[in-house]
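pipeline: protein-struct stage 2 | run 1193 | Response regulator transcription factor
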Amino acid sequence: MIRVLLADDQALVRTGFRMILENAPDMEVVGEAGDGAQAAVMARELRPDIVLMDVRMPEVDGVEATRRICTTAQDGSGTPVRILMLTTFDLDEYVYAALHAGASGFLLKDTLAPDLLSAIRVVARGDAVVAPSVTRRLLERYVGTGPQPATSATRPDALTEREREVLALIARGLSNSEIAGLLHLTEGTVKTHVSRILSKLGLRDRVQAVVYAYESGVVRPGAG
């Protein structure tokens, strides 16, 4: 079972998500939090697999809650809790900050139920949800607009030419199978390249790889 914690300041929204999740045979809602501070505490106590985290909440918002949860996870105590951000807006500076804070992706609140469940399963497997068009527009709008903590201290020249090529395609939102077709490689080979890229750059997942690619100049806003 995938154990999910709901974090949203609107009780009605939490109820809606609970109904969707409890109808899924492989998921259970282990708790509900009405603000970011409560979400961080409950994530530490309940150790859910996934937190569905609203971006905008009073007092402690979803970004700060994500930062607290992911910082706690770095102490190596058990399986990391993964954060799936929820936002009403498809261009939201808070979401960009949340990706930096350690979120594994984000969804719009009006996402259809099957897509929500699919995204939760993807993140629970340890992958990341990268909505290509939305994520790309988000990064193109906010990268370079202000001081941001570095995603990785490693320079992109640590990568081979092929790895840089794969990283650029990840940043464009392509899946492993799409990258394989474009570069005439097997999907297994692409997976190996992705793993090496993440390892060399000290990145957690594809979401961080996308952010890194824009911030390091491997891809540039508006290109391609």
